[in-house]
Design brief:
The termini are far apart. It contains 4 helices and no strands. By secondary structure, it is an all-alpha fold. Its main location: nucleus. Belongs to the DASH complex SPC19 family. It comes from Penicillium capsulatum.
């Protein structure tokens, strides 16, 4: 019995030694486990988003910006239209002023002619010309002056008409 007991004891000692070696092996393998966990842990350097989330963010940004862009575009187009109307008004004013200048230069020769005609009529009267011819010359000069005044009035009314049309268009565009 002693031999069987001694063999049991030796078997138990070898099992304990094997178990101790296994524990040491496991301990050396597990001993580095916290460092391995840290090394193997994934670090996100960039945030990855799913495509639907990205599309939702783009759509919300688009919905937020679109009204502002439309408003700015309408303001810019209104300003451009305003500048175009102002340019047209200035062109019309320039044309009217040019017309006035040309009519003034035309008036001066007419005034010179009428003065020469009146001096000729005066000389004619002095020379004994008939009173009727002098009266006709005076009437003609008065009619020419009236024609020039009416032409100026028509030009002024046309300018006022175009200005009122522009104001009307401007008020309609503002609404």
């Amino acid at each position: 019995m002693s031999s069987s007991l001694s063999s049991s004891v030796s078997s138990l000692q070898s099992s304990l030694q094997l178990l101790d070696n296994s524990i040491n092996t496991l301990d050396s393998g597990v001993n580095d486990f916290p460092r391995l966990c840290k090394v193997l842990q994934t670090t996100r350097h960039f945030e990855l988003l799913p495509e639907p989330t990205l599309k939702e963010a783009q759509q919300s940004l688009l919905d937020e910006i679109t009204p502002s862009i439309a408003h700015l575009l309408s303001l810019a187009s209104n300003h451009v239209e305003k500048l175009a109307r102002r340019e047209q008004g200035l062109k019309a004013k320039c044309e009217l002023q040019e017309g006035r200048l040309s009519s003034n230069t035309e008036k001066n020769p007419m005034a010179n002619r009428s003065q020469s005609q009146s001096s000729a009529a005066t000389r004619g009267q002095l020379a004994g010309a008939s009173n009727n011819a002098a009266h006709k010359a005076l009437e003609l000069r008065r009619l020419v002056q009236k024609k020039e005044r009416l032409k100026y009035a028509v030009d002024r009314l046309e300018l006022q008409s175009t200005q009122r049309e522009r104001q009307l268009r401007k008020s309609m565009a503002a609404q």
